[in-house]
Amino acid sequence: MDNSTCPLDYRYGRKELKEIFGETKRLQYLLDVESALARAHAKVGNIPKKAADEITKKATIDYVKINRVNEIELETKHDIMAVTKALSEVCEGEAGKYIHLGATSYDIVDTANALQFSESTTYIQKGLKELRSNLVKLSKQHKKTVMLGRTHGQHTIPITFGLKMAGYAMEIERHLERLFECKSRLLIGKLSGAVGTGAALGENALIIQQEMLNELKLGIEDVSTQIVCRDRYNELLCILANISTSMEKFATEIRNLQRDEISEVAEAFEAKKQVGSSTMPHKRNPITSEQICGLSRIVRSLIIPAFENSIQWHERDLCNSSSERFIIPHSIILTDWIVYQTNSVFKNLKIFPEKMKKNMAISKGLPMAESMMTTLIKKGMGRGDAHELMRKISLKAVKLEKTLKEVFINENKKLKLLNNNEIEYALNPENYLGVTEKIIDRVIKKLDR
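Predicted structure:
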């Protein structure tokens, strides 16, 4: 019988990411650190090379079994002692007595964390790059697809769907920059003992630490306590929360544009089998976008306990340990999944340019009031006067339930401000897009790689 209680076990998350944070691979990371420690000791002559070789050979999940580690932990009530004892049991000769020499548990734990961060964030970066490409592709395809801009939920002036996608693509680019930049501060291990002094490692403590972490391709904590400083973890978790927030922002836009009253885009829907509602047969819900929004809120919520964990008693207490077992895997696995799902939405997005045109007509030309105003200014009218005239014309059009064009033409007969060609030009949304194409082209030039 499957007794899984966490949705990561059966509903959310990609297999590759869940494996990185699974028991078996986590054990291998810990063993990788222990074997690197043994080799570092051997290099400075603290232990025989033969012993380091034996530890290295046996420090794999082929020899050290997760079941045995768990059995020992039930007795010792200590996870790292269980790992080191299980490893020593499979080592031949005297090699076992050199395992974990001079180290404290979190020398191993935090260094293993860094190895997990390195591998897992690479998947997130890859997903973001794919999403960036999908968004750039949409910005190219819809560079001239005119739609309403909206602020405060109200119609404003025209934009293009390509401009919206170009903005999203640049947001992804900034997240990629953030992830890249934080890695020099994030991929950090430590080997400095119980309070950061390296006392148990002897006079070669700094050399041993450098040898171990160089082998693991990690940086070194400048001044540690018993743990790597958690401001490093906070930076990653904030970046993940920021990424997930962008994904929710994009997904929320898709949900809004898919509303029946708007219907300008829609998530792909498998018409043959997909069911939208258990009771309403007609429903075609934006379920993937809604899932993205819901899970993004979980990722953001994990920032709070992460920051609380940074406030340690003296050189360290144990409060961070239990909560980090939730925070670290959940935030990374969910962020990767959210990015993956966002890719799915935009890769298969249905876009309806004709509906965008129809929606432009709903406001009876009012979104072109600013265009009319700027045209009047170009003809010599003062900016304030032009704004006031178009404000009054707009209000009158709403009151009379007429188009902006109808009311303006009627006023123009008295004021003789513009000719018919100028009016028609100013009321055409395609003529009031400013430098939209140049902005999109600039994004494409920067990101199309």
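Summary: Residues 116-139+152-184+228-358 form a domain with the Fumarase C; Chain A, domain 2 fold (CATH 1.20.200.10).
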